[in-house]
Sequence to fold (261 residues):
Amino acid sequence: MMNIIKTKQEIKKMRIAGKCAAVIIDEIEKYIEPGITTERINNICNKLIIEQKAKSACLGYKGFPKSICTSVNEVVCHGIPSEKQVLKRGDIINIDITVIKNGYHGDTSKMFFVGEYNKLGKKLCEKTKKSLYEAIKIIKPGIRLNQIGKSIQNYIANTKFSIVKEYCGHGIGKFFHEYPQVLHYEAYDNELILKPGMTFTIEPMINSGKPQTKCIEDGWTVITKDKSLSAQYEHTILVTEEGCEILTLNKTDTINKIIRS
Ligand code: MF3
Ligand code: CO
Ligand code: CO
Fold:
């Protein structure tokens, strides 16, 4: 198996890439309002990425046609920005930014409310963000990778929401999607022990209805089968000696960047 522990120099580059992705999440916020198209959000983000001397990891990835993913309401993930898609009051949208900077990847996403929020959407987003935080807080060397999924599952079990099982987090570094897969539910098959220097994403997708999803005809957009709302938050994480560091922390995060357990 390939070495999944990053060197000091690699970690430096991962910090820079993570920061780059996080800054774009912060800067796009003011544009998210009723009437904007997802195509325009894509174009603004791409410009911001280029201004930082980085490039989009999504554009052309397995043929993906745009620079970011925009997933609105019942879209779970991998929504394709389009000039035909106009945001309206009450929509919820996930914006997922993955950049390549100095050969390393930073990957993060969060939910935005368009105009006023609707009650269910807000609750769903809160719980989804909290489930990510619960997982981040337990990360330290010596724990098993599958503890991450377990903590998300335990947290979401106390809500009326459900966890998407078909998509997962991933190791990240020189490559967009590296070993290992990071599941968001409890599984017994991965006994991998976390070690300092590992970098991976956690990116739970939580539905207001049933957990099942389907991919539509464009080959990318994943929606909830029952058309219920879906939310997702994603961070790129570094395992440290004492706990972990959130490489993609943004201004709206309400968790410490450095976690010591
Ligand atoms: N950023 C997504 C992730 O978190 C992957 C998007 S792949 C794309 O892993 F091709 F759809 F952009
Ligand atoms: Co990811
Ligand atoms: Co992502």
Observations:
- The chain has one domain: 8-260.
- The domain at 8-260 is CATH 3.90.230.10 (Creatine Amidinohydrolase).
